[in-house]
Design brief:
This protein is mainly alpha-helical and 111 residues long. The protein is 49% helix and 7% strand.
Protein backbone atom coordinates (compact mmCIF):
# COMPACT_ATOMS: atom_id res chain seq x y z
CA UNK A 1 0.00 0.00 0.00
CA UNK A 2 1.22 3.49 -0.85
CA UNK A 3 2.55 5.33 2.27
CA UNK A 4 0.69 8.50 1.27
CA UNK A 5 -2.61 6.64 1.05
CA UNK A 6 -1.95 4.92 4.38
CA UNK A 7 -1.12 8.25 6.05
CA UNK A 8 -4.26 9.86 4.63
CA UNK A 9 -6.42 6.97 5.85
CA UNK A 10 -4.84 7.16 9.32
CA UNK A 11 -5.45 10.91 9.42
CA UNK A 12 -9.14 10.42 8.56
CA UNK A 13 -9.50 7.82 11.31
CA UNK A 14 -7.99 10.16 13.89
CA UNK A 15 -10.20 13.05 12.75
CA UNK A 16 -13.30 10.82 12.98
CA UNK A 17 -12.30 9.72 16.48
CA UNK A 18 -12.17 13.35 17.62
CA UNK A 19 -15.78 14.06 16.65
CA UNK A 20 -18.40 14.26 19.37
CA UNK A 21 -21.45 11.96 19.07
CA UNK A 22 -23.56 14.98 18.07
CA UNK A 23 -21.09 15.87 15.31
CA UNK A 24 -21.13 12.29 14.04
CA UNK A 25 -24.93 12.23 13.97
CA UNK A 26 -25.02 15.57 12.17
CA UNK A 27 -22.64 14.28 9.48
CA UNK A 28 -24.80 11.20 8.95
CA UNK A 29 -28.05 13.17 8.91
CA UNK A 30 -26.63 15.73 6.50
CA UNK A 31 -26.05 12.86 4.08
CA UNK A 32 -29.66 11.63 4.35
CA UNK A 33 -32.31 12.80 1.90
CA UNK A 34 -34.59 15.69 2.82
CA UNK A 35 -38.10 14.62 1.90
CA UNK A 36 -40.80 16.91 0.56
CA UNK A 37 -44.48 16.98 1.49
CA UNK A 38 -45.29 14.81 -1.51
CA UNK A 39 -42.96 12.04 -0.26
CA UNK A 40 -44.57 11.49 3.15
CA UNK A 41 -47.99 11.17 4.76
CA UNK A 42 -48.17 14.63 6.36
CA UNK A 43 -50.97 13.51 8.68
CA UNK A 44 -48.63 11.04 10.39
CA UNK A 45 -46.64 12.17 13.42
CA UNK A 46 -42.88 12.05 13.76
CA UNK A 47 -42.25 8.80 15.68
CA UNK A 48 -39.71 10.55 17.92
CA UNK A 49 -41.33 13.85 18.93
CA UNK A 50 -44.93 12.96 17.94
CA UNK A 51 -45.38 16.30 16.17
CA UNK A 52 -47.50 15.92 12.99
CA UNK A 53 -45.30 16.05 9.91
CA UNK A 54 -47.58 18.79 8.53
CA UNK A 55 -46.58 20.95 11.52
CA UNK A 56 -42.91 20.08 10.97
CA UNK A 57 -43.15 21.36 7.39
CA UNK A 58 -45.04 24.49 8.50
CA UNK A 59 -42.40 25.18 11.16
CA UNK A 60 -39.62 24.79 8.60
CA UNK A 61 -41.32 27.16 6.18
CA UNK A 62 -41.78 29.71 8.97
CA UNK A 63 -38.12 29.50 9.99
CA UNK A 64 -36.96 29.88 6.40
CA UNK A 65 -39.29 32.86 5.87
CA UNK A 66 -37.85 34.61 8.95
CA UNK A 67 -34.27 34.14 7.83
CA UNK A 68 -32.75 37.16 6.15
CA UNK A 69 -31.07 36.99 2.80
CA UNK A 70 -27.43 36.11 3.24
CA UNK A 71 -28.14 34.57 6.65
CA UNK A 72 -25.56 31.82 6.91
CA UNK A 73 -26.90 30.33 10.15
CA UNK A 74 -27.68 26.69 9.71
CA UNK A 75 -31.29 25.66 9.95
CA UNK A 76 -32.23 22.02 10.55
CA UNK A 77 -35.78 21.49 9.33
CA UNK A 78 -37.79 19.07 7.26
CA UNK A 79 -38.22 15.34 7.25
CA UNK A 80 -35.74 12.60 6.41
CA UNK A 81 -35.72 8.85 5.89
CA UNK A 82 -33.11 6.32 6.97
CA UNK A 83 -31.93 4.33 4.00
CA UNK A 84 -31.45 0.95 5.72
CA UNK A 85 -34.67 0.65 7.74
CA UNK A 86 -36.91 3.20 6.01
CA UNK A 87 -37.86 5.04 9.20
CA UNK A 88 -39.15 8.57 8.55
CA UNK A 89 -38.64 11.29 11.16
CA UNK A 90 -38.28 15.05 11.42
CA UNK A 91 -34.90 16.77 11.32
CA UNK A 92 -35.72 19.26 14.09
CA UNK A 93 -32.69 20.14 16.24
CA UNK A 94 -33.94 18.85 19.58
CA UNK A 95 -35.19 15.62 18.03
CA UNK A 96 -31.76 14.95 16.57
CA UNK A 97 -30.18 15.47 19.98
CA UNK A 98 -32.64 13.26 21.85
CA UNK A 99 -31.36 9.98 20.35
CA UNK A 100 -34.89 8.57 20.50
CA UNK A 101 -34.31 6.24 17.58
CA UNK A 102 -35.34 2.60 17.24
CA UNK A 103 -32.62 -0.02 17.76
CA UNK A 104 -32.40 -0.66 14.03
CA UNK A 105 -32.10 3.08 13.30
CA UNK A 106 -29.44 3.44 16.01
CA UNK A 107 -27.46 0.65 14.37
CA UNK A 108 -27.62 2.43 10.99
CA UNK A 109 -26.70 5.82 12.49
CA UNK A 110 -24.00 4.86 14.93
CA UNK A 111 -22.21 1.88 13.36
Amino acid sequence: MDPTTTAAAAYELVQDALLTPQQRIKLVLDALPVLGKDNVDIDEPCPICLMPLSAVFAEGEEILAKRGEGDEEECITGVTKLVGCGHVFCRREYVLQSFGFSQEAQHILFL
